[in-house]
Each structure stands twice: as structure tokens, then as C-alpha cells.
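User: Please predict the structure of the protein below. I'd like the answer in C-alpha cell form so I can feed it into my own downstream comparison script.

Assistant: Understood. Taking the following sequence of 119 residues as input:
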Amino acid sequence: MEAQTVNAQSTITLYEKLLENNPGKKLVLICDNARYYRSQLLQQWLEGQPLIQQWFLPTYSPNLNIIERLWRFMKKQAIGLSFHPTYQAFKSSILHFFEHLDQYEYELKRLLTLKFQIT
């Protein structure tokens, strides 16, 4: 999902799409400690959503947050040291990366493993 900004409202929109795409299924969402996940607006909305449960990672634990590994890899592949003269060119480079994830299957399988050191 693409959003102008990530906040409580865009998170609600994302959660609504997840519910729509997974009818009747319980969704357990692993969240970092971004403010919008704990906002009053989102928490009130979640009260009426018994199929969604948020689990929070410990504070300051990027090693447990697999998405951080994906962001770092995406930046290296899609942005790297390249200059993007416009926002549209920058956005296109990032979207191209995600549209062609299959090209990075080997690297991503190694990078996004659940085998990692906790301490």
C-alpha cells in the first residue's frame, strides 16, 4: 500500500485492506514501537476488531525486525549511490525493486531468515 505519510489513519487503512484480503482470519501483526501503532485513534479502532492482534517487538531491537533487513537491502539495490533527479525517478526505482523481488530470491532467503542471534 502506498501512502503519503505513515500515521494512525494510514495504518487503519492498511489493516482494513488486510482484513478485506483475509476474510474471517485472525491476523497477528508484529509491530515495532512506532508511535502510530500505539496511538489513541488506532487503539480505539482496534477495540472493534477482534481478528487483529498487535504484538510489539522489544524497544531498540532492529535485529528482531526483519523488515529492517529488507529496507537496508532495498536501499542498497534500488538506491545505492545513484542520483535520482526527481521524486518520480526515485519512486520508480523503489517500485521496480519490489516488482522484481524474484530476481533477489537467493539473497532474500539468506537475509530474511528467522535464524538470528538474540544477544
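That's the full C-alpha cell string. The two ends are 33 Å apart (CA to CA).
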